[in-house]
Design goal:
By secondary structure, the protein is of the alpha/beta class. 38% of the residues lie in helices and 28% in strands. Helix 2 (38-58) packs antiparallel against helix 3 and helix 10 runs parallel beside helix 11 (301-311).
């Protein structure tokens, strides 16, 4: 992708109202340090840029530029704020990017490259148009971009879609969109001491992510397509399911790699609150193992455990912790044995053996 930072910029004097968005590649600096050669680093970033650009283009959007490890894009057709379909396209685009992340990460793992995790923020508002380079390329500027960028860096949750209040109000004006999505309050961005801007996480209703059903396909599957419940979908390994909960994405990726040859159905969460909501909606807890950290933001592992047991006491638990409290753990949480606690960093063989014993 061209970098126009050294090219002449000419403002056109025109402004439009449009949906704009940022997609930030999480922990890319830390990840690229682990990559051995320059060619692989180029492969890593080009895969990110090209995979996102193709999806955005297919939903009538345009990627404007890359800013370090972040892409700026917009949807020209959203200037018509009464056209429901173009706004639905915008949201669908974000979710397809998240769905395809699973597929792209499978390809990256084959080349021993770290996985992609995205922070996606989308909002709606006035943007100023400019021409750059030889005046054949469009660039965008303005307070809407600045605010969306701030939301991305300070409030967005990896692998979720965060939207600003302006975009939220437009989406809520279309009943057909409201029917298919949940909007979760995600706090406010403080513009000034007295001026705050609300943000929301968007979730699809009755939709399973591809990574949750263990298939490589570009289409998300609704609950109707899968059957009356999640458990109706034919599972691997006699329906044995594992839910991983840790606020470190790299650790989740490591656990998934350890388990990939074991033929389990694995779902992972970096936010324990989202994991709890997911567990509450599972209709059958048979052969379900939850592997979780103790030190986590929003909800620690002990609190998480207590809430899980209130949902269903038969759910199996494996704690993994960096804390040196293995011997004392059974006194902290009655009913938990030392066989249900492992110390970080985990040994792959011990980890997979322990998981197998707990599920059997």
């Amino acid at each position: 992708m061209k970098n126009f930072s050294s090219k002449e910029i000419r403002f056109s004097g025109d402004s439009i109202k449009s949906c704009i968005g940022f997609i930030d590649l999480v922990d890319s600096t830390k990840n690229t340090i682990t990559i051995a050669n320059l060619e692989s680093i180029r492969k890593y970033y080009s895969t990110f840029i090209n995979s996102i650009s193709q999806v955005v283009k297919s939903y009538n959007g345009r990627v404007i530029k890359n800013i370090g490890d972040c892409l700026l894009f917009y949807f020209p057709k959203t200037t018509d704020f009464k056209n429901m379909e173009v706004f639905k396209e915008t949201i669908d685009c974000g979710f397809i990017i998240l769905d395809e992340r699973y597929i792209v990460n499978q390809e990256l793992s084959k080349e021993h490259l770290p996985p992609f995790n995205y922070r996606i923020s989308i909002d709606y508002g006035v943007v100023d148009l400019a021409l750059v380079g030889d005046y054949s390329q469009i660039d965008l500027f303005g307070s809407t971009l600045n605010l969306c960028s701030k939301i991305n860096s300070s409030l967005s949750i990896p692998n979720d879609i965060t939207i600003g209040d302006n975009f939220y109000r437009i989406l809520k004006s279309f009943p057909a969109i409201v029917t298919n999505y949940n909007f979760i309050n995600n706090g406010e961005y403080r513009i000034t001491e007295s001026n705050r801007y609300s943000t929301y996480i968007v979730k699809r209703k009755n939709i399973l992510m591809l990574s949750d059903v263990g298939i490589s396909n570009k289409t998300s599957l609704s609950e109707k397509q899968l059957g009356s419940s999640i458990e109706d979908f034919p599972k691997k390994n006699d329906n044995k399911r594992i839910i991983l909960v840790d606020d470190e994405q790299d650790i989740l990726f490591t656990y998934k790699i350890f388990l990939e040859d074991q033929d389990y159905d694995v779902t992972s969460f970096i936010d324990p609150v989202f994991a709890l909501n997911y567990i509450r909606n599972i209709p059958n807890f048979k052969d379900l193992l939850v592997i979780l950290d103790i030190r986590m933001k929003n909800l620690n592992g002990i609190q998480f455990y207590q809430q899980i047991k209130s949902i269903d006491p038969t759910i199996k638990i494996l704690f993994i912790t960096a804390l040196d409290i293995l011997d004392e753990f059974s006194t902290i949480i009655p009913g938990i044995s030392t066989k249900q606690v492992m110390k970080k960093p985990v040994d792959k063989k011990l980890f997979t053996t322990t998981v197998k014993k707990l599920l059997n």
